[in-house]
Amino acid sequence: MNHSQTYQTTSNHNQSPYLVILGGGESGVGAAKLGLKQGFKVFLSDAGNISKKYSEELNDLNVPFESNKHSLEEILKADLIIKSPGIPATAAVVLKAVEAKIPVISEIEFAGRYTSAKKICITGSNGKTTTTLLTYHLLKKAGLNVGLAGNIGNSFAAQVATANFDFYVLEISSFMLDDMYDFKADIAVLLNITPDHLDRYAYSLDLYADSKMRITQNQTQADSFIYCADDPETLKCLERHIINAKKYPFSIQKTTGVTAFLQNNNIQINLHNPFTMSITDLALQGKHNLYNSMASGIVAKVLELRNETIRESMGDFKNLAHRLEHVAKISGIDYINDSKATNVNATWYAIESIPTDIVLIMGGVDKGNDYNMMKDVVKQKVKAIVCLGKDNKRIHEAFEDDVDIIVNTFSATEAVQVAYHLAKKGDTVLLSPACASFDLFKNYEDRGDQFKSAVREL
Fold first, then answer.
1. 255 is in an annotated binding site
2. Residues 335 and 441 in one domain
3. Which residues form the Mur ligase central domain (predicted)?
4. What is the pLDDT of residues 61-89, one digit of tens each?
């Protein structure tokens, strides 16, 4: 599905080109702002509800919109369609648009056409939010004029319409990449590729991996590609994709042939003026975070930021809520909220990074999870599993031979109370669900917030 950029001329009327936006969330409303600024006639359509905040913004902008339906006749008048990353390519409205030869692109693709800022784009199955925030923190601390957007923060398009940044740090999901064609990352970061969202990729890891590799599309020798040399799926992709950008691999398993590596418990980055930092001084602890810190550090070195600034930023960074967030220590038991872990790999990372015995709270809406990869680490570290979800059958089946106690619960309060009784002094109670939250909660934030308030009530 290759979309040309000749949308201005496909119009059969002489007025402004007609932009239709599918999805009335942060990215959709941002795209509407930029569309207006660029002289498009704009219409927004959402098959679901549009929140009060966004419908008020659309009214203020005088953008006509509809919710709880898609009026096909109106949508198919478009010269260009921007779709929310949450809408799959197989949705009826998208198939109709493609059939009508209307280009369908992402908000990121659209915004990229109207900014000359340098774009640092970060993708990966796990760790991308943390790495994006750390990279943004590094650049900001170095005094660069930088915006934060993509899967996080305010919409990229809205910022291109209203701000004037020299750099953007963008967290990019595979769903966004699928609708990007001419967009180019000046610095592309690929952290890892592990099975996630396979329901959107015909249950094929190769298709999902190829989607992630679109982060390198359109790059030239003047650009940079930063990737993990320890990630088997990434290495497989490098065999079947031609990368034009300069490559900067990082590793914690080897010290040769890579830009960043681990030596004597120090992170070493050999680029320009070499950088060294003890891993004990890093704000982000745990093996998976060494990778995140290395990736951000290489971005900083490519941009030739001062070692002192990098060291300071990596030492004082504060991570996101709901991502391995320490909630409290009660009766010698640590409570950690990792509600953002909505896939098996993220939960594997969380368990792997905790040195104590664990009572694991997991479960929810299973996106076709393969729990096999968790079996070893669960056997080693998890003493009990507290299921938090409506249907926990697959968790029981996966771990009944590895864990002595598996209990079902149906609310955050119940889960926390059961976990409290199963844990002893020195243990960690970890909420790291490996599943989406929609069966019992509004979203993963709501799940994490309910967990935190239940812990504080103990």
1. no
2. yes
3. 122-299
4. 999 999 999 999 999 999 999 999 888 88
